[in-house]
Amino acid sequence: MRLPPVSTTWLAMVIAILATAAMGVSLAITHGAVRAEQRQRAALAALSDFNALLSKMDGLGATTPAMEDAAIVNWLNVFQGRPGLESAVADACSGRIANFGVRWLEAPGQRTAGFRPLGEARARPMERIGPNVFVLSLPAGTLCPGRAVEVVAVRDSVGPMRVVIGRVVERTGRAWGVAAISVAAMGVLLVGFGLATAGWSRARMVSGVKRINASLEQAGRGDFGDPIPLHEMTGDLQDLTRQVNVTLGRLQELLTWLRDTADQVAHDFRTPLARARARLDRFGETGDAALVDEARGDLRYLTQAMNEALALRDGEAWAFESIRLDKVCRAAIELYEPLADQRSIRFETELSPAETLGVASLLQRAIANLVDNAVKYSPDGGVIRLKTHTNGEQSEVVVADQGPGMDATVDEVPADVDSHRMGLAFVRAIVRRHGGELMIASGPEGSTITMRV
After folding, report:
1. Which of 51, 193, 241, 397 has its CA 20 to 30 A from that of 95?
2. pLDDT tens-digit series, residues 399-448
3. In Å, what is the CA distance from 221 to each residue of 208, 217, 218, 242, 447?
4. How far, in Å, are 10, 17, 22, 25, 194 from residue 183 at the CA level?
5. Residue 316: its pLDDT value, please?
6. HEC letters along 215-253
7. For residue 138, is pLDDT > 70?
8. Which of 110, 107, 28 is nearest to 69 (CA)?
9. What is the pLDDT of residue 188?
10. What residues does CATH 3.30.565.10 cover in the chain?
């Protein structure tokens, strides 16, 4: 599934909001756990108070179902206000007293004692503590001025009376308020930091894209300039920048190769054209048929050279495939063997399997040119050695002849060695197009040409 595009700014802001929300949820969960523990402590204290009160009144014989009025009066007296109650309530509301105890009693005849709101408060059962244990919610101002209070109380009947014994749940304290404010402040900082980071990252990315775009525009005008420095790019753009540098470098290399090839073709065509023109001029003066044949040979050479140059330019769509160079060499030997036999030239081969990726037609032309040169410039009765093998990840074709030798650079070959000049320039261009190299070793005993692709 393809996700819709999202800007870096929005992504950073969403991450910051989610982080803040996660902190808030974590704080709320922790607060809930602490609050549950506080209620449980208050419930245990209330149960203890209730059991202690039952034990005390039982000792007075005042817990039987048919209670005498005197026993009820005793209960009412126990639940009456105690000395210093107001100051104790104030201390409880301020947090100086934890789990302050409260109680209320409703006896027959509408007689009551204690803290009446306990009998009217909204209650939620705490069944995991006990069936008669409840959490009572007292609105602000009921017990403590200005804030609501929770009381965990035991509600039960004692004889004809309804008794409520409770403990005030202690406050979570100022620390939770500070923590909540801190989380909110941290959320604001996270959002601000996320927006600032996203803005800075976006500015760097936009700057990097502009730099790449400027380099591409410059390359479109034919000026490839220097490679784009990787350290100026963000991590997201470094791979793209590296690829752009490689592509621009390759384009510059190809343009240089095209210029060199064009210069080579112009240089190679100049002499045959001048020679053909001179022979045609002489033919106009003498009518010699031999000059016509020579001129036709020059024109055939020019036609062949032009066809090879066009093939190198078009590359037949440059369809790369797996090619066995040893098989291509055998085919070239079969093609030129009749010409070699006429001059008693022998082929010695050592063709090990050698495979590469390339354009089949161009590599066939290149190897055919090498064999053609070797046959053309080998002496009668000479030996041509062909060898194929692999060298690491590359494959090599080696063609050695016993001809007069030549310089290693094509541009410096003598002007009358036409086939060597145009043929090797064409082969070198093909090899370079396949990412390889052409090496020439020449001496008095002949030339050895190594094609590595």
Report:
1. 51
2. 999 988 765 444 444 433 444 444 677 788 889 888 899 999 988 788 99
3. 20, 7, 5, 21, 42
4. 21, 12, 10, 10, 16
5. 47
6. HHHHHHCCCCCCCCCHHHCCHHHHHHHHHHHHHHHHHHH
7. yes
8. 107
9. 74
10. 319-452
